[in-house]
Model the fold of this input.
Amino acid sequence: MGDGMSAAKGSGAMEPLESMNVRLPPASAAARALTRDLEALLGPGAVSCEPADRWAASYDGSPRSLLQTKAGLAPHPPDAVAWPATAEQVQAVVRYAVAERVPLTPVGGGSAGTGAAIPLRGGIALDLKRLVGAPRIDLEARAVEVEAGVNARRLEGLLAAAGATLGHFPWGMESATVGGMLATRSGGVRAGRSGKLEDLVLGLEAVDGTGAYLRTEEGPSFGPDLTQLLLGSEGTLAVITRARLRCWPAPTASFSRAVRFSSQAAGARVLRELLRSGLRPAVLRLHGPLDALLARRSPAWRALPTPLRLLLGAGQNEALHLALRAPALLNALADALPAHSLLLFVFEGDGARGEVDAAEEGGEAVRLCAAMGGEDLGPGPAERWLARRDQGVFPREGLFAAGGFAEVLDVAVAWEWLPEGRGPLRRLRARGARRGGGRGRDAEPPPRHRAHPADSLVPRAR
Ligand SMILES: Cc1cc2nc3c(=O)[nH]c(=O)nc-3n(C[C@H](O)[C@H](O)[C@H](O)COP(=O)(O)OP(=O)(O)OC[C@H]3O[C@@H](n4cnc5c(N)ncnc54)[C@H](O)[C@@H]3O)c2cc1C
Done:
């Protein structure tokens, strides 16, 4: 932070950053003046206009951004990066930006998949990762007070050491900050038991777009609920500086199961019945045919054509390259898969009765599945899936590295869509693909964008 990584000094010419295939020009005179002004507010070392720091704040976890980085492009660097360490410093920077009409983009971990943390209009990237005072955990009140820059995994580690958990496990938690998760209404995989992030928020502290300090109150609101308004506002309404969140006793026992059904529709019916029965698994997932195959439990596995089996089974680069050369064929093969679905669930319990509670609820779910035609495959597939998930294994990056393109879409659908969810999702993905977007789990060569100059980034011919 602050000192840049490497950029050689010079004026005007593009300067290479060591070990990075990205070139940014040195800061302009205006950017250097901005940096001096911000340093007067935050102190030396807390602001930078070095190319390396501007580059690091110019991208996020969105596919477009990843492709741009891979192609050595950084089309949207900020003029300066500022690292406030207190809420008062956040306030000072916001007030300065308002007075001087400088664009300001809050940045947490930069893991957003939407491009929302990218400073499209330059100006100040307000990096909040120095707001990391020690969280205050109150087990009695089942609450934790935490600053916005604290990393999600670190918070969970601190809670675990105190015998507690937030119960919020988004896939991107290695990179995400508390503020970023709140600003995006982040969702996690074990939300079935403890709720989604917005259910965990008791109160927020923030600096609004005028520089005023806000503190939302706990408890029911008689007017508009400011807490809920700020959640998911993606840095457009306020900079969140601190939150008071609910936490729970850490689970002491779990019960995992995978159950196979003859079709996606059958699995979807059970999913609904399970939730309507009042059972609350921490994890509940219905995998369609392709994902069921990835769990390598489908009887169709051995009957698969070799290229598809190689691709799904090993994720080996050679097989992947092969498939990426013929994505239409691969997608056709995937469409022809037998229509099995796989329901994965995990029940958790805590305290002295943890094991009994988890086993009782899990047993009830297994009986319900059996009564509705499910075949119990035991705990293995669910445990393996969760272990991969906990290790942060994310399929997208491997595909990118191999020259492919993939995107993970979270879509909320009505129950009636579920049985043939693949149909509507396919149509959605096809539309996205026509616009240069991704196609979910389908194999796809890199998109060829035309419209935007910043998009001249199709990875070079291999
Ligand atoms: C591999 C991977 C897996 C992912 N898995 C999940 C998942 O399971 N669930 C999920 O919900 N998301 C997931 N994401 C997306 C991402 O991790 C989340 O959106 C996360 O909440 C973003 O947090 P961040 O700190 O990185 O925010 P950033 O990316 O830095 O910012 C996101 C947005 O919030 C704003 N912002 C950041 N901090 C603040 C603040 N303090 N106050 C106000 N606005 C702020 C930014 O301006 C931007 O608009 C994943 C991403 C990746 C790369």
User: Anything to note?
Assistant: The first strand starts at residue 15 and ends at 16. Residues 1-19, 433-462 have pLDDT under 50 and may be disordered. Residues 253-443 form a domain with the Alpha-Beta Plaits fold (CATH 3.30.70.3450). Residues 354-371 form the longest helix (18 residues).
